[in-house]
From TrEMBL:
<protein>
    <submittedName>
        <fullName>4Fe-4S ferredoxin</fullName>
    </submittedName>
</protein>
<keyword id="KW-0411">Iron-sulfur</keyword>
<keyword id="KW-0408">Iron</keyword>
<keyword id="KW-0004">4Fe-4S</keyword>
<keyword id="KW-0813">Transport</keyword>
<dbReference type="Pfam" id="PF13237">
    <property type="entry name" value="Fer4_10"/>
</dbReference>
<keyword id="KW-0479">Metal-binding</keyword>
<dbReference type="InterPro" id="IPR017900">
    <property type="entry name" value="4Fe4S_Fe_S_CS"/>
</dbReference>
<dbReference type="GO" id="GO:0051539">
    <property type="term" value="F:4 iron, 4 sulfur cluster binding"/>
</dbReference>
<dbReference type="GO" id="GO:0046872">
    <property type="term" value="F:metal ion binding"/>
</dbReference>
<feature type="domain" description="4Fe-4S ferredoxin-type">
    <location>
        <begin position="8"/>
        <end position="38"/>
    </location>
</feature>
<dbReference type="InterPro" id="IPR017896">
    <property type="entry name" value="4Fe4S_Fe-S-bd"/>
</dbReference>
<keyword id="KW-0249">Electron transport</keyword>
<dbReference type="InterPro" id="IPR050572">
    <property type="entry name" value="Fe-S_Ferredoxin"/>
</dbReference>
<feature type="domain" description="4Fe-4S ferredoxin-type">
    <location>
        <begin position="39"/>
        <end position="68"/>
    </location>
</feature>
<keyword id="KW-0677">Repeat</keyword>
Length: 68
């Protein structure tokens, strides 16, 4: 998944993502940009700050955040 807003690029490795209801990344996001729909994690690029909290807390290292 790539996002163009503010030069932030968030990539989800769907092989690593457990799609857990108790997702650490979802809980850590300060702007609630992370949600799940039909079992897939979604990141709302219109509000994502590129802070990297989701990347820090995901135990499976399924998320990477780049800010250019
Ligand atoms: S980078 Fe920060 S604002 Fe963006 S989805 Fe991850 S935790 Fe939320």
């Amino acid at each position: 998944m790539s996002l163009g807003i503010n030069g932030v690029k968030v990539t989800i490795d769907r092989e690593k993502c457990e799609r857990s209801g108790g997702c650490f990344a979802k809980r850590a996001c300060p702007v609630r940009a992370i949600s799940y729909k039909n079992g897939k994690i979604l990141i709302d690029g219109s509000i994502c700050l590129g802070c990297g909290k989701c990347q820090e807390v995901c135990p499976n290292k399924a998320i990477s955040v780049e800010v250019k």
